[in-house]
């Protein structure tokens, strides 16, 4: 709570005060890393950081570099990757590693599993960030302890959504944690029985549950709906609005930085919590892009992590900054959209030769007007684009297929895509597994 009040003062302060705080925290984490992280110090060899420095003076890192050098990257020599991995396998429900550290792990669906450690002070910052977000959607810390909250989160206890839920259970007797890998019918049954006033979950599951509400199988009346971990596109927003008459709140985070950005009740964009982290939105060549231009990647710097420094760390997220400020008056910059991940971008043959990069937002936009499409996945095989669709019950599949084929063909033509076969198949459901922490992977092999 003290940290929460500390950060609230910064967000309601001045931009000059925010900039001074950022500079102070950046110098602290970098100097600590140079002194205590052998791997980071080696990465910085040849760079003169003895005097003043700016963020752009520092080297760029990524998950591969961090994981390959984990034992030398962390600043506590007792932390060993092999032992942490063994702990996760043998006792995944253990609350603290060595009695001091929260362990957060990623599924490795991008090809490389990530292991991230937070000591108690660092995890308190994460919880303070969660309290901040709750206030942004109109719920005070006291309200969190009195209102029924249901969270459809990862089945794995080491995922950030589960770890945070475990922490928030203290003082929250009205919390229901649901495993996203459960059958949809079971989720509906448990939500109907619990009747949450606050409802959070993966964006794709919120969309599916909104259909259950619209069609009468789910019957809840939440005061607030919020999504995390997946892209919340206009189609999913519209579906939630139809189901519950409210606009869902969006959240952007990662295992490396659980709270990066979120929107407030004005819904003008996502506030980047720039007193907790710095982000640089860059193109394919790591050059900064201006507001309004979608970036290819994000370079993340956590301003409060000392045990496992995260400094100019590459995230493969498609993020766009917004030039305007929010009417709420917070000093934080806005992000206009989170457009999925770089891995979800597909490359198709161009009519003029070469290839065209197609954003996941283009595919999502083609499905916005098709209420009969509950979920979808896609991938490319040579000159064929495969679109797999879960239709709503009773949908006219022939009409839906024709509409999607026309919409996709028109959109791809505008993008300059050449001759390509569009293969559309229908499925009763997509299976969510623990391997992806219960999330729905947009691209790749069928699930």
Q: If you had to describe this structure to a student in words, what would you say it looks like?
A:
- By secondary structure, the protein is of the alpha+beta class.
- 34% of the residues lie in helices and 23% in strands.
- The protein has helices at 2-11, 15-36, 38-43, 63-68, 70-73, 81-90, 120-136, 141-146, 160-168, 184-194, 203-214, 234-244, 360-367, 397-414, and strands spanning 101-105, 115-119, 149-153, 175-179, 198-202, 224-228, 251-254, 257-263, 270-272, 277-282, 297-302, 313-315, 317-322, 334-341, 346-349, 355-358, 373-381, 384-391, 421-426.
- It has a 5-stranded antiparallel β-sheet with strand order 7-8-9-14-13, with helices on one face. A 4-stranded parallel β-sheet has the order 4-3-5-6, with helices on both faces.
- Strand 7 and strand 8 form a beta hairpin.
- The longest helix has 22 residues, at 15-36.
- The protein starts with a helix and ends in a 21-residue tail after the last strand.
Low-confidence stretches: none
By secondary-structure content and strand pairing, the structural class works out as: alpha+beta
Tell the overall outline.
globular
- How many beta-strand runs? 19
Instruction: Please list the strands of the largest sheet in the order they lie side by side.
Output: 7-8-9-14-13
* Average pLDDT taken over every residue: 87
Radius of gyration: 22 Å
Helix content: 25-40%
End-to-end C-alpha gap: 42 Å
Strand count, sense and barrel status of the largest sheet are: 5 strands, antiparallel
Per DSSP, the total helix count is 14
Strand content: 15-25%
């Amino acid at each position: 709570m003290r940290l929460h009040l500390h950060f609230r003062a910064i967000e309601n302060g001045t931009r000059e005060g925010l900039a001074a705080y950022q500079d102070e925290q950046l110098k602290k984490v970098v100097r600590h890393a140079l002194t205590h992280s052998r791997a980071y110090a080696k990465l910085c060899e040849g760079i003169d950081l003895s005097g003043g420095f700016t963020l752009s003076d520092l080297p760029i890192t990524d998950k591969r570099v961090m994981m390959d050098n984990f034992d030398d990257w962390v600043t506590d020599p007792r932390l060993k990757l092999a032992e942490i991995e063994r702990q996760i396998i043998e006792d995944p429900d253990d609350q603290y590693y060595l009695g001091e550290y929260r362990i957060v792990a990623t599924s490795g669906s991008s090809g490389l599993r990530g292991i991230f450690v937070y000591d108690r002070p660092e995890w308190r910052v994460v919880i303070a960030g969660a309290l901040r977000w709750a206030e942004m959607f109109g719920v005070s810390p006291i309200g969190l302890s009195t209102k029924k909250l249901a969270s459809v989160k990862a089945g794995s206890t080491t995922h950030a959504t589960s770890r945070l839920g475990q922490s928030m259970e203290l003082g929250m007797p009205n919390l229901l944690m649901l495993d996203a890998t459960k059958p949809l019918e079971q989720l509906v049954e448990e939500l109907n029985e619990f009747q949450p006033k606050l409802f959070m979950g993966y964006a794709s599951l919120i969309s599916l549950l909104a259909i259950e509400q619209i069609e009468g199988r789910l019957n809840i009346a939440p005061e607030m709906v919020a999504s995390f971990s997946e892209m919340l596109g206009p189609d999913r927003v519209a579906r939630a609005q139809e189901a519950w008459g409210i606009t869902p709140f969006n959240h952007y985070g990662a295992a490396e930085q659980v709270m990066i950005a979120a929107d407030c009740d004005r819904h003008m964009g996502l506030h980047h919590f720039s007193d907790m982290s710095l982000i640089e939105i860059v193109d394919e060549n790591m050059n900064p892009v201006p507001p309004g231009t979608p970036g290819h990647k994000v370079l993340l710097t956590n301003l409060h992590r000392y045990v496992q420094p995260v400094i100019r760390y590459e995230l493969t997220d498609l993020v766009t900054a917004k030039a305007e400020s929010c009417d709420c008056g917070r000093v934080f910059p806005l992000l206009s959209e989170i457009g999925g991940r770089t891995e979800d971008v597909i490359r198709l043959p161009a009519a003029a030769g070469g290839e065209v990069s197609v954003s996941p937002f283009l595919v999502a936009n083609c499905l916005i007007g098709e209420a009969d499409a509950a979920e979808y996945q896609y991938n490319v095989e040579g000159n064929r684009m495969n679109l797999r669709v879960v239709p709503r019950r009773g949908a006219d599949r022939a009409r839906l297929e024709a509409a999607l084929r026309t919409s996709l063909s028109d959109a791809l033509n505008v993008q300059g895509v050449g001759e390509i076969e569009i293969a559309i198949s229908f499925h009763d459901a997509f299976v969510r597994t623990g391997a992806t922490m219960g999330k729905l992977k947009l691209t790749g092999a069928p699930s």
